[in-house]
Amino acid sequence: MIIDPADLDPQSLYKLLIGSVVPRPIAWTSSVSREGTRNLAPFSFFTVASRQPPMLCISLGPPPETEAGSERSAKDTLSNIEETREFVINIVSVHLSNKMYESSKNYPPEADEFEKAGLTPAPCEVVGPPRIEEAGVSMECTLDRVLPLGSDHLVIGRMVRFHVRDELYQNGRIDVAGLDPLGRLAGNYTKIETIFELPADNL
C-alpha cells in the first residue's frame, strides 16, 4: 500500500506517524512560568539534536482529543520555555508511569503539576525550573531556539547538566536496564523486555 499524506486528514495522518515511529522516548519536561508556577508535561516527539554541543529537541503541538495530554499543557510548556529560556527533561522510568500520566492531564495554568502528580521538585544547578527528584536521569537545558514547524513547535535546548542516580552510572554509561525507561507506541506504552547485541543468531 502506498499512501500520500496529502490525501489524509490530520488525525488519520497522525495515527500513521505515531504507529510507525516507535518506540519513542518520553521527554517529561519541567518548566516554570514567569510567575513561578511549576509545570510538568510529557512529550514523546523527543530526541538528541546535536552531540557537540549536546542539544536535545522536543516537538510541542496540540495533541488530538483521544491522546493523553492537552493543548493547554503544551501551550503552558512552550510559553514558559520562551519566557524563561530554561527547562528540564526528565526520563520516565516504568515505575513512574502513572505519575507521568497524571501530569499529562488538562490542568489550569495556575496548577502546580508536581503537586498534582505527587512528585518531588528538586533544585537544579544551572537552570531555575526544578527536576523530578524521583527520576533516574534529568537533563538541565537552556533554550537555543524555537522553530515553528507546521502545526507544531520544535524546541531545541542546550543540555548544560546531567543528573544521574548513582546506581545508574556505570563506567561512564547509563545502566539502561536499571533505568527501565518507558516508551511510547501509538496509543499505548512499552518497556524494555529484552536487551541484545548484534549480530544475533536467534533472531
Topology:
Elements: H1 10-20, E1 24-25, E2 27-32, E3 38-43, E4 46-50, E5 55-60, H2 71-84, E6 86-91, H3 97-103, H4 113-117, E7 121-122, E8 131-132, E9 137-149, E10 152-164, E11 169-170, E12 173-174, H5 176-179, E13 182-184, E14 189-191
Antiparallel strand pairs: 1-13, 2-3, 2-6, 4-5, 5-10, 6-9, 7-8, 9-10, 11-12, 13-14
Description:
By secondary structure, this protein is an alpha+beta fold. It has a single domain (24-191), classed as Electron Transport, Fmn-binding Protein, Chain A (Pnp Oxidase, Chain A). Helices cover 20% and strands 35% of the residues. The protein is built from five helices and 14 strands. The longest helix is centred in the middle third of the chain and has 14 residues, at 71-84. The radius of gyration is 17 Å and the shape is globular. The chain starts with 9 loop residues before the first helix and ends in a 12-residue tail after the last strand.
